Amino acid sequence: MAIIGYARVSTVEQTLDLQRDALKETGATTIYEDTASGKNADRPELVHCLKALREGDTLVVWRLDRLGRNLQDLIRIVGELDERSVKLRSVKESIDTGGSVGRLVFHLFGALAEFERELIRERTLAGLEAARARGRRGGRPPALDAKQRKAALAMMKNRDMSVAEISRQFGVSRSTLYSIQSASKREANRGITGNIQRRACA
């Protein structure tokens, strides 16, 4: 049963010495180290560290925020470790999932994370319902209003300016202009089809 440490700092200017010393004091024989922001999903040494852990091993970190990018990410990692019978120990928070108190703490963390997700979901649904009550639909507002779309389509048709120049003038991306153009063509096609059907029924 090995004790393996993981350390992380967010920038190259910071030093890992403090974390190294703390992890060595716990008996860690191997320490994996990353230099990456906590929000950065690319933490190659953490990947190697998690792969190296075996049943009965203990993963030690200086602080919990060194391991997870956020609470949900931390709970996910701890859950995966628990499934593999790997314990987690945090030096600063004095948490050890090898004991009943440590496991209880993470059960509480999991419940809080679920509570937070449910609150966000309820607020989102309430916001959409309020918007519908005011006659608005969900989603982003259009990048250009009807008058601007008409002007942009005319400029694209005349070809006096490039699409890149038109996009800069209206402050939108070229893909937005192409989407507006495609939507206009579809609408025109629907109008033609509707006229043909009305004439056939006449």
TrEMBL record:
Domain Resolvase/invertase-type recombinase catalytic: 2-135
Catalytic site positions: S10 (o-(5'-phospho-dna)-serine intermediate)
InterPro entries: Homeodomain-like_sf, Recombinase_CS, Resolv_N, Resolvase-like_N_sf, Resolvase_HTH_dom, SSR_resolvase
One annotated GO molecular function: DNA strand exchange activity
GO biological process: DNA integration
PROSITE patterns listed in its UniProt record: RECOMBINASES_1 (PS00397), RECOMBINASES_2 (PS00398), RECOMBINASES_3 (PS51736)
Keywords: DNA integration, DNA invertase, DNA recombination, DNA-binding
Family per record: Belongs to the site-specific recombinase resolvase family.
PANTHER family, alphabetized: DNA-INVERTASE FROM LAMBDOID PROPHAGE, SERINE RECOMBINASE PINE-RELATED
Protein name (database record): Site-specific DNA recombinase
